[in-house]
Design a protein that fits this description.
It is built from four helices and eight strands, in the order αββαββαββαββ. By secondary structure, it is α+β, with helices and mostly antiparallel strands. The strands form two sheets. It has a six-stranded antiparallel beta barrel with strand order 3-4-5-6-7-8. The chain has a two-stranded antiparallel sheet with strand order 1-2. The termini are far apart.
């Protein structure tokens, strides 16, 4: 049993993309570092925000941010498509103020 658990943990670590690993989507290549540097979030309502990325417009169309409640300042990015699953799993959002509209940063 112990060997199986250790192997499962090794698999998870080996299959997790690194911060600088290249992700390819629709012929575009980028890294999680690019997402952090080039993307920001604008919150337009209590529960909804949009991801805006310079030079990666395909992420603008495929990714959104949903907040659980009005006062929540942290949220996760939700991207459609299995190729972008890494962003959904590894990136979070931190909003800078409590007012709407508000600006936030992405951290991966």
């Amino acid at each position: 049993m112990k060997k199986v658990f250790i192997c499962a943990v090794c698999f998870l670590i080996a299959s997790t993309p690194s911060f600088s690993e290249t992700i390819t989507y629709d012929g575009e290549e980028f890294t999680l570092r690019d997402v952090e540097r080039k993307c920001e979030v604008w919150r337009w309502s209590d529960n909804y925000g949009e991801l805006e990325c310079r030079g990666m417009r395909f992420l603008n169309r495929k990714c959104e941010v949903f907040f659980q409640n009005r006062g929540q300042r942290n949220a996760s990015v939700d991207c459609r498509g299995s190729e972008l699953r890494t962003i959904s799993r590894r990136c979070t959002v931190y909003m800078n103020s409590g007012r709407v509209p508000e600006y936030g940063t992405v951290s991966c």
